[in-house]
Amino acid sequence: MILGLEFPPISHVVEWPVGPLGINKVVVLMWLSTIIAIGVMWLGGRKKSLVPTGIQNIAESAVDFVEEGIVMQTIGPDGLKFTPFLITLFTFILSCNIWGLVPLAPMPVNARIALPVFMALLVYVIYHTVGVLTQGPITYMKNIMFMPGVPKVMYLLLTPIELVTKFISQPLSMAVRLFANMLAGHLLLVSFAVITAGLLTLGPTLVIFPFSFGLLVFLTTFEVLVAFLQAYIFTILAAVYIADAMHPAH
Amino acid sequence: MLRILAEQDPGELEAGLTAVGRGIVYGGAAIGPGIGIGLVVGNAITAMARQPEAAGMVRTTMFLGIAFTEALALFGFVLAFIISG
């Protein structure tokens, strides 16, 4: 007990009360994120004016950002068929992450590992399917295991590394990167908020209160950047893996 | 002194050692990526200073490099939570 306040055990950050069918706060926020992601794109596409204003502007900036900044930079022109998938990924993950900063429901949905694992598995299935469909299964496995343009001796070292990378490390690291970033940010914000509220009890600790509050404000600002950055990195890594599967030359 | 040590509740020793283990896991995991991200961003700054026209592409690649190296530090962070006493 610190300063007479009772803190629940830290595991309560990761264990929430559960409703029927396992529906809890995280699931409801995920549904709201789905509605936001679909709604922004649908509302933005209804009035097709040449000079976009309002919500059409937001939707078009998002599409332009993903198409020019991610797809064209990594896959190139023949990756444009993946643009809808990557736009969906980006807007959904961004709206999921932003929930961690909203005042009444501060819970980044990606701070529970189920959703990042699901999305990483989805990208994993997609990029292996793209590789098998564009190159044929045997050529695809040959290009993974025996990378062209490398002296044959290096295959002893390179083949296990490439196999583990392509089949285990890439999806696992995508999921854990998103999950751990969101969980770490959430834990930091929760800890500092509780500490700041605890310091409000009058007494000599009141002088620390402005510094703690200032740090909390700074951390919230930093979490906005991290939310956007993690959505961007997940999407660009998905694009890079698809590009690697489509064009095998290293 | 040995009498004091012998009177310890064995559960507390385990909890204490778990805490030490968690600290070591995350502390050790944060050294490499700290140096790594510093190298990536430093070289990106040099590249952007040498050729400002390429700043956009360098910035994109820099973020990609930061994501890869930061993931290793976060593996350690998650592992520190997974380790149970």
What does this structure look like?
The complex is a heterodimer of chains A (250) and B (85). Chain A is an all-alpha fold and 250 residues long. Chain A contains 7 helices and no strands. In chain A, 68% of the residues lie in helices and 0% in strands. Mean pLDDT of chain A is 85; it is low at 1-5. Chain B has 85 residues and is mostly helical. Chain B is rod-shaped, with a radius of gyration of 21 Å. The model of chain B has no long low-confidence stretch (mean pLDDT 85). At the A-B interface, helix 6 and helix 7 of A face helix 3 of B.
Main attributes?
heterodimer; A: 250 residues; mainly alpha; 0% strand; globular; B: 85 residues; F1FO ATP Synthase
Low-confidence stretches of chain B: none
Taking the alpha carbons of the first and last residues of chain B, their distance comes to 26 Å
The count of helical stretches of chain A stands at 7
Give the helix proportion of chain B (percent range). Answer: over 70%
Q: Termini separation of chain A (Å)?
A: 57 Å
CATH topology of the domain at 37-85 in chain B: F1FO ATP Synthase
Largest interface: A-B, 17 and 13 residues
Content of β-strand of chain B: under 5%
In N-to-C order, the SSE pattern of chain A is HHHHHHH
CATH architecture of the domain at 37-85 in chain B: Up-down Bundle
Give the oligomer, counting copies of the same chain as homo and different chains as hetero.
Answer: heterodimer
The number of domains of chain A: 1
Gyration radius of chain B, to the nearest Å? 21 Å
Structural class of chain A, by secondary structure, is: mainly alpha
Average pLDDT rating of chain A: 85
Number of alpha- plus pi-helical segments of chain B: 3
Q: What general outline of chain A do the C-alpha atoms trace?
A: globular
Write down the overall geometry of chain B: rod-shaped
What structural category characterises the helix and strand content of chain B? mainly alpha
Q: Name the CATH homologous superfamily of the domain at 37-85 in chain B.
A: F1F0 ATP synthase subunit C
